[in-house]
Amino acid sequence: MNLPAAPGRGIMMGVILIFRRKRWGIHLSSANRRIKPVLMKRLLLLYLSVLFAVPLLSQNFENIKKEKPVTLSGSLSASTNFYNTNLTGSTRDPFLFLVNGNINVSVYGINLPFTIMYSNRNFDYSQPFNRFGVSPQYKWIKLHLGYRSVTHSSFTLAGQTFLGAGVELNPGLLRFSAVYGRFKKQTVPNTVNPIDTLATPSRNGYSIKLGFGNEKSFFDIIAMKIADDTIPGQDFTFEQYKTPQSNAVVGAHLKLTIARNITWETEASVSLLTKNTVGQLSGETGIVLIDQLSQILNLNGSSEYSTALLSTLQYSNKGFVAGLQYRRIDPNYQSFGAYYFNTDIENITINTSLRLFKKKLLIRGNVGLQNDNLRGNKSAGSNRVISMVNANFNTGKAFSIDGSFSNYSVNQYAGTVPLNDTLKLYNDNMNLSISPRLMFTSSTLVQLLQLNLVATDLIDHNQYTAANSAVNSRMAMLNYSMNFLKTGFNLNGGLNYITLTSAFENRIMYGLNAGISKTLFKNKLNTNISVSQNISEVSGYTGSVFSGNIMLNYRPHRKHLIKFSFGYNANQYPDDAPVRSYNELKTLVSYAYTF
């Protein structure tokens, strides 16, 4: 095929990634229980035919000569941590070092970002680093190779790290993205100190997103399929293997700018989870399409589906913002492309923010109603009321003040069985904070005086449990600092008073803190020394809590940074006190090079 060489046309490059087919399960005949191959093989064939319109022929060669063919940017860092304590049972490593690198290679405008990380915790690994990945990008074309993290939507592929390959194409209004790889590596139990007696299968799959639009308005459709390997690893039998699972998710993501000040965004998805892919397949229904899908998706008695929905409507205009959000996630909703979901939850939230008095006063708040037990099959359900408001007032002169109030209440109700009043959960968690401050500035000195007052209460409305569960705390901190602008000298000090009261324990801590910092050698060296000394009273026992830190940051050149820090903590209590005494030392030395 001949390619036209006229300006404005590019070299067309086709990249086809074909992955081999794999059998994803077995079919148990209901007549004689014989194992036979699935009639329709499970398709793990991700066919990406991507036409990269790289406009090499249309580029201006005079400009190319002026540009650097290859440029490097990024940073490399190495750090060591030393730790020592007389506290028995400490699990922290006494020595740890970490090497980290973020490197971007640009070849005539094509970006190739690399990430490298290595630590002494992985001497047993054969590879020289833990994670390696690259995402080269040129204009609207982006590739993913190695260990990568990609998000298609919050309910489908949502940042789960995988080892594989992917591509993103965004020419104009087209929005296309596809990835394929290994989402979980096969693991082998530790024979010396086994935590789990079963081996874990490898988990592989793909996710494809196809959409149309831009950042203001778009519509995407996402299809994801990730499953465990059904063939046990070497030297393992099915009895020693964790049950393989499979997950297929279909989702949609819509965002519309209805008017200049109104936006509507919605995400919805359906997840199909098969908890045992080697179980007996469901029987035939007589409907060809359903029977074919049943075989492709390995539907059986362990299969179940769940849904998730998030919809937000927002209005903003001249310092005023108001929004309405609805979220619903079914019980046990899962996506193998995401790490975690808070499931069995439904809530509706109203939020707003407002600026008044020539933008000197900012008020923000929200209130929401939340409930669980969406399927009505739990022994007890709960209703929650979530509310929060905070305000900031800045006069533009010396005085300003911040304040916030929040309240989270939970009230249980009976589900499938009667609710015992002595165990009913019904409480409020309230938090109130106020922070006034004064700032005085001149050409040579900046002074700041700030007071922080915080009150937190857990109020139990159940008369049978209130005496044992109610908790309240109070905190007051007064801090003062002086910053001499010309010399780079800074002094600070403060007082603090903290109380914690419950049915089992009363704690009071009060004391002072002080610090000094100075820049030297034309701001190349920053030094900081801080100490704090507190008296701690715990259930009638009096102890001492001391902390001291030294930090040095030296930048001999804009590309080089050396850090050193040393910290010492000492908690001393009587031998019969409920709090243990201990001393600890922490030291950090690090070097970073930026290029």
Notable traits:
single chain, 595 residues, mainly beta, 26-stranded antiparallel beta barrel, two-stranded antiparallel ribbon
Main beta sheet strand tally, sense and closure: 26 strands, antiparallel, barrel
Strand count:
31
Mean pLDDT: 82
**Morphology:** globular
User: Which stretches of 5+ consecutive residues score pLDDT under 50?
Assistant: 1-63, 123-129
How far the N terminus sits from the C terminus, by CA atoms, comes to 43 Å
Work out the helicity level. Answer: under 10%
> Which class do the helix and strand fractions yield?
mainly beta
Strand content is: over 45%
Number of helical stretches of at least 4 residues: 3
- CA-atom Rg in angstroms: 30 Å
Topology:
Blueprint: E1 11-17, E2 27-28, E3 35-36, E4 48-54, H1 61-66, E5 70-85, E6 95-107, E7 110-119, E8 131-134, E9 137-138, E10 141-151, E11 158-169, E12 174-184, E13 203-213, E14 218-228, E15 246-259, E16 262-274, H2 288-296, E17 303-317, E18 320-329, E19 345-356, E20 361-371, E21 380-394, E22 399-414, E23 426-441, E24 445-460, H3 466-469, E25 471-484, E26 489-501, E27 506-520, E28 525-538, E29 541-557, E30 560-572, E31 582-594
Antiparallel strand pairs: 1-4, 2-3, 5-6, 5-31, 6-7, 7-8, 8-10, 9-10, 10-11, 11-12, 12-13, 13-14, 14-15, 15-16, 16-17, 17-18, 18-19, 19-20, 20-21, 21-22, 22-23, 23-24, 24-25, 25-26, 26-27, 27-28, 28-29, 29-30, 30-31
Question: Explain this structure to me?
Answer:
The protein is mostly beta strands. The chain is built from three helices and 31 strands. The strands form three sheets. It has a 26-stranded antiparallel β-barrel. A two-stranded antiparallel sheet has the order 1-4. The longest helix has 9 residues. The two termini are 43 Å apart. The N terminus is likely disordered.
